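Suppose a classmate hands you a notebook page containing two proteins, each written out with its sequence and a corresponding row of structure tokens. How would you begin to make sense of it? This section walks through that situation. The first entry is reproduced here exactly as it would appear on such a page.
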Amino acid sequence: MEFENTFNVQVPVDEAWAILTDVERIAPCMPGAELTEVIDENSFKGKVSVRLGPVALTFAGDARFEDRDDAGYSARVKAQGRDSKGRGGANANVDFRLIPAEDGTTAVEIRTDLQLSGSVAQYGRGVGMIKDVATQLIDRFADALHEQIVAERGASDEAKEASADPDDAPPTPAAKPISGFSLGASVMWNALVRWLKGLFGGRSDG
């Protein structure tokens, strides 16, 4: 299945690219994600916990940059993982590109081609549910990333004002992953809204 998401980063495109290609820096911003090993500058291992309907899943696997155009601000990431309880797996090709905006911010466009296997494919058989989960995760990632950037800039400004060594700046706290209940409730609400639209959308008052 394929789906697209977009979000904005409140920094110029060069700075946004440097941030978004620094996996160790952005991993704490992704809800439910944990970076477990950096193999090299283009390959990583980690795990992601996510909820599909009533089922909580944890995928452990690896990801790597298959293509990266630093000049064009675009990249492709290939990721694959298996559920820790043996209920199946997930493979994804994620293409993203950054587009500079006139106000000095950056738009990030993401296109995901996701394949699920095993029992996991049954849990996530509803494309609408998968899209809702992806949208919720991206929205929370964008919020956490914005908070991280603001915190880092604030620490940098304080360090400059105090003429302190930048190494003495306080570390940025890791973003807290969203709870499974919060994500699940949002996804179920969206599914209910779609069902109601389908139920009443075709009816006529006459």
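The notebook's second entry, a different protein, reads as follows.
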Amino acid sequence: MRINKDLVDAIMMLTFIILVLTGTSDFENTVTKDLVMIGLGIVAVAMIILRVLNARNPEDKESHH
């Protein structure tokens, strides 16, 4: 399966930006803030893992004609 590196990078950057904005914002309900930050953290970690796996296992272009 081919993962587009640019897409992974864009999602990772957006996730970090939203995490910072969420962390510095005031929420009426702290549980909602915690859940949003946990969800974004999971997405960020998943994107980091995908980026590492994509860098570690580049697919051969010759095998896909």
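A careful reader of the second entry would note: Helices lie at 5-24, 30-56.
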